[in-house]
Specification:
single chain, alpha/beta, Four Helix Bundle (Hemerythrin (Met), subunit A), Heat Shock Protein 90, 5 domains, 6-stranded mixed β-sheet, 5-stranded mixed β-sheet, 26 helices
């Protein structure tokens, strides 16, 4: 029940926030006002049903404001949007609360809740006063006098003071004797409820509202739990307000003048008179559509998502995928029945021939009767089988349709439109730009792009960081933009789209961009690389430094951004999701951050291939194309095999070689090849045969297997056979090794340890510049060096050879340094190999984390400047 309540509250508040941001640009849109009023009303109802009176009162005040605008009593302004958004922000805390925190929340927020409620009420009252002053009166009001109910009012004040006194005494007793909490609250509640009724009788709304606040406070304090220290203070503050209201009544005159305004005898004025504008005929207009939440404020047919346990959903997903596979296996039984029918036909033919033979013999009556009986039975069974086949065909058709429908529905239930987590982005840009004195327009492209809900939730926080950075440091001030002839209003865009089976989210702005040379200088100033290394860094490598913890391109740190935290969060998330993040920037023309990640990792479309009699699968999203080439098309140069494709030379390698099998390339005929790529580079993989395309439900490999080279997961084919899904990044890394070492055309065999006494070092780093620097330093010192591009590549390389030392980076895609070292320490064969971890990170917590993972030494990359790196290597292995 609580989960449903949280989901409903989140939906209504998202509708309010989106609507307010759109309404600010078009206050004349009556459809938006109606939708806002309905959303506030729904929020009020949801809070009331769940007993959250404070939230209900605040939502009620918002609803009254929108009603006042509808009636023409209040003229909305930008300041009202700020006020209403503040109320939305306060209520947005509710969906984030745990159920156990729900009753405590109003206690700590009582002052802010009441303050916002009173502010909205005051704004409504001000609007009504302004509207009333604009009414054209046809007659002067008549002043009459009325005698006050002095006796009743006196009784009210006396009884209320008495109740307040008793309540204070009970509160003191609760404070002194905590065990009396439950009994005290039960004693106070009837007295406060009586106060509400009395105040209503004498029209003392202020006292009634304060008494209701006290009731809500009593409800928020759990009688079964220890006394909240804020409870007593908040209760006494409310009682002080009640007594102040009673004291104010003492100063009122004994005779109250009431100004009655008789109804005008002329027809009511047009709406323009009430709003201070001349009356005019207005054209009918279509309501302005909401670009961020379609139908969120129009109509009551909400299509809001229902939260589902991720564990439960994953189980349903697996069952649906397996059910779809199992139903396809039924076709094999149908084939068997068809064979049975054919066999029966043959048997019937034999019996018919036998009967004809026996008909020729006059003394074979008995045998003839037996054969005839057999024949009749066969015909009978033939009819039965025919009926069974017809029924089976119908059942198979229906069951296949239902199973596919179930599968796709479950798959779709994991997907949510990107806009579901984008509601806060326009508000963030609006508030940040106003705070900075900038004019920024936010645009969302691809709002309906479906995204796995787990990935979508994780994206929200990193995107918030990037939007703040863009507003603060990416976008120039209006004066700066004017000097460069840019539009006064800057633009920040978020685009979500699918491409080649991946989700792409791009955050771009038209600001001043990032100066790569300034970043290069900052890298040097921090001592992260040597001057020689800095000169060789490409622009992409320079931009990668922005993903380091604490590294920022900002000239100064602000409260909004500039701490380098956002991009560090982005980098960590992309590593977790198996994605990538890249920064592209052109000085003077803006910056783009491209996030590339899987749409979902539950089901993939694959190409099945045969290699050495086994079935493997390659995700279609990673395949550029498939070809059949002739043997004479394969050329060789410096032991590198390749073939021409258009104006490109494509490197060729046998899949058998990459997997460590005996390489057999046919000397004639068509050779099936699969083209896979990384960035702009393509590779041709020779396979034995193409087996077709299919959808596979991905199953993770057993952890006890460790990292299997070139394999990422497993699955079952339609006939129930096992298939291994290839890890394309790992495959490409192994191909790179084969191409660089000139070992194409020969089987890839396990490397044995060097017997000459020369020590062998494995260098693992995702930066080509760092790998080359470390390799040169180590080789100049007389060591044999192997290199790997990330933790997965390093683990596979380690298992194929024997090394005396491992040097590894920390932040790497697919498998970081900590995970790589942990794998080594968990494996008896590699747990005693010394490990040096080298990173740009120089914080104490990073150092401790490295040592905890099992490294022998933790160095920063500034150690390349002197001989401290090579000294550490020699101390460990010489």
């Amino acid at each position: 029940m609580f989960q449903i309540f949280r989901q409903e509250v989140d939906t209504h508040l998202s509708a309010l926030q989106d609507g307010l941001l759109n309404w600010e640009n078009n206050f004349s849109d009556e459809a938006l006002v109606k939708g806002l009023m309905r959303a506030a009303h729904s929020m009020k109802g949801a809070a009331g049903i769940f007993g959250m009176d404070n939230a209900k009162h605040l939502a009620h005040a918002m609803e009254d404001f929108f009603v006042s605008v509808q009636k023409g009593e209040t003229e909305p302004a930008s300041q009202d949007i700020d006020m209403l958004l503040a109320a939305v922000d306060m209520l947005l805390e509710i969906p984030k609360l745990a159920e156990s925190e729900l009753t405590k929340w109003p206690i700590g927020r009582m002052d802010e809740l009441v303050s916002l409620q009173n502010e909205i009420k005051a704004r409504i009252a001000k609007g009504k006063t302004t509207a009333a002053n604009q009414i054209v009166q046809t007659e002067q009001p008549e002043t009459i006098t009325a005698k006050p109910q002095s006796g009743v009012m006196g009784m009210f004040k006396s009884e209320t003071r008495s109740r307040v006194k008793k309540i204070r005494e009970t509160l003191v007793n609760i404070q002194e004797i905590p065990t009396a909490l439950a009994k005290g609250i039960d004693a106070i509640r009837p007295s406060v409820e009586a106060m509400v009724n009395l105040a209503g009788i004498v029209n003392q709304e202020a006292t009634a509202e304060n008494a209701k606040r006290l009731i809500a406070l009593l409800a928020a304090q759990n009688k079964e739990k220890p006394l909240d220290p804020n409870f007593l203070k908040a209760a006494n503050d409310i009682l002080d307000e009640i007594e102040s209201t009673l004291s104010a009544l003492e100063t009122e005159p004994s005779i109250t003048e009431i100004s009655e305004k008789p109804k005008p005898i002329v027809p009511p004025a047009p709406k323009g008179v009430f709003s201070g504008r001349s009356a005019q005929v207005q054209k009918a207009r279509m309501p302005t559509p909401n670009p961020f939440r379609k139908n969120s404020l129009q109509g009551t047919d909400y299509d809001f998502p229902i939260r589902v346990s991720a564990k439960s959903l994953n189980k349903i997903m697996a069952l649906a995928a397996e059910s779809m596979i199992e139903v396809k296996r039924l076709s094999g039984f149908r084939d068997g029945l068809l064979k049975l029918k054919q066999f029966q036909n043959n048997l019937s033919l034999i019996i018919n021939n036998s009967l004809e033979s026996y008909y020729a013999q006059s003394d074979a009556n008995l045998l003839l009767h037996s054969f005839k009986t057999i024949h009749d039975n066969v015909e009978k069974y033939r009819g039965i089988i025919r009926d069974q086949l017809d029924g089976y065909d119908s059942l198979l058709k229906d069951y296949t349709g239902r199973t596919n429908h179930l599968y796709h529905e479950v798959l779709f239930s994991r997907m949510r439109p990107f806009v579901d987590r984008a509601h806060a982005f326009p508000r963030l840009v609006r508030d940040t730009s106003r705070l900075l004195g900038k004019k920024i327009r936010f645009e969302l492209i691809g709002e309906r792009t479906p995204v796995d809900r787990e990935i979508l939730e994780k994206l929200e926080s990193p995107i918030n960081h990037m939007l703040r950075n863009a507003c603060d440091h990416g976008i120039e001030s209006p004066a700066e933009r004017a000097k460069t002839d840019k539009p006064e209003v800057a633009t920040i865009q978020i685009e979500a789209r699918h491409n080649a089976g991946m989700l792409l989210v791009e955050i771009r702005d038209d600001g001043h961009g990032i100066d790569a040379e300034k970043i290069r200088k900052r890298i040097l100033d921090k001592g992260l690389v040597t001057p020689e290394m800095a000169e060789t860094l490409t622009q992409d490598e320079v931009m990668e430094f922005l993903f380091l913890p604490g590294f920022s391109s900002a000239e100064k740190v602000t409260e909004i951004s500039g701490r380098g935290v956002g991009l560090d969060v982005v980098n960590n998330l992309m590593q977790e999701l198996g994605g990538t993040a890249k920064i592209k920037s052109e000085l003077g023309n803006g910056t783009s951050i491209m996030l590339r990640m899987p749409i979902t990792r539950s089901v993939i479309r694959t190409l099945l291939i045969g290699i050495d009699g086994e079935c493997y699968a390659i995700p279609l999203s990673r395949i550029d194309r498939t070809l059949r080439i002739q043997h004479d098309q394969i050329l060789a140069m410096e032991n590198h095999q390749y073939f021409h494709l258009g104006d490109q030379n494509i490197g060729v390698v046998s899949a058998r070689e990459v997997l460590g099998l005996e390489s057999v390339i046919p000397s004639e005929g068509n050779i099936p090849v699969v083209l896979i790529g990384k960035d702009d580079l393509l590779y041709a993989i020779i396979v034995d045969q193409f087996l077709g395309e299919t959808d596979l439900a991905v199953r993770p490999l057993d952890r006890r297997l460790g990292k299997v080279p070139c394999v990422s997961a497993a699955a079952l084919t339609e006939d129930g056979g096992p298939v291994l899904i290839m890890d394309i990044d790992d495959l490409i890394n192994n191909i790179d090794k084969l191409l660089s070492k000139g070992k194409l055309g020969t089987p890839l065999k396990s490397k044995k340890a060097d017997t000459s006494g020369v020590k062998k070092v494995l260098v693992v780093d995702d930066s080509a510049t760092v790998r080359e620097t470390e390799r040169q330093i180590l080789e100049q010192a007389g060591f044999v060096v192997e290199v790997a591009q990330d933790g997965v590549d390093g683990w596979n390389t380690l298992r194929l050879g024997k090394f005396n030392l491992v040097v590894t980076d920390v932040d790497m895609p697919r498998m970081n340094g900590y995970e790589f070292v942990s794998l080594m320490r968990d494996d008896p064969e590699y747990k005693n190999i010394p490990v040096i971890m080298i990173s740009y990170k120089d914080r104490e917590e990073d150092y401790q984390k490295g040592l905890k993972s099992g490294v022998n030494l933790y160095l920063t990359k500034s150690s390349f400047r002197d001989d401290s790196f090579i000294k550490a290597v020699k101390e460990l292995i010489l």
